[in-house]
Amino acid sequence: MTTSSATEAREIGNRIVVGGIVAIVLILAIAAVLLFLNLPDANAFNARVEQLFIENDNLTSNAEIKLLEILAGSGTAFSDTLSSYRFVIFVLLVFATALLVAAVAFLVMLIALNRRMSQIERKGIEVNSLHISRDEKAVYLNDFQFKLTDAAMETLSVLAEARMDDEVMSGAEIEGVISGRDAADCDEAAGATRIKRLRDTLGNQMVSELLVKNIARKGYMLAIDKDVIRMR
Questions:
Q1: CATH 1.10.10.10 at 130-231, yes or no
Q2: pTM to 2 decimals?
Q3: 40-62: per-residue pLDDT in tens?
């Protein structure tokens, strides 16, 4: 039921995003059509000049004819200028549409990323496989390889074995297993120091903090499914 609800919510979200993008394109397309319809006709000035020629065919002096020629040339210049303005407006509208669509797409991606990060913070890292190779002094977390020091390898191995047994280990217990002493004779801070060094060796803060969980007043454990752990 939960999976079905999540799927339906995702489908509804996708439809909303597509609908929003389509609405943006339609609004800008309608605005472009209205704008171009209300722009003056590029040949309007030429038409008026032609009408002047027709209505004033009795203008015969050189000055009058020269004036009409100037008007005709001005009409042609106005027509060319208006045509270039139409092209510029068209390019700007296309550019505005692309920017708005890209902005919506990036906004959706950021929202999805934030949701994913929130899920990771709540549930921990989704680990499909954790291979610990003592010979290589490396751990393979999904497709990522982390080189570990001997001390970090020992700490991670202890945590992995405890996780496979569904156990939570305190710092003193971790120190006891690694040092071979009784946990009662070990200092809690020593185990906490080993955990800190393991996290520092893993490097990535998000990976280290979410992989190795600190459970208040209980101890430490790996926040992964025990079935994905492999040790050799």
A1: yes
A2: 0.46
A3: 666 666 667 667 666 666 666 67
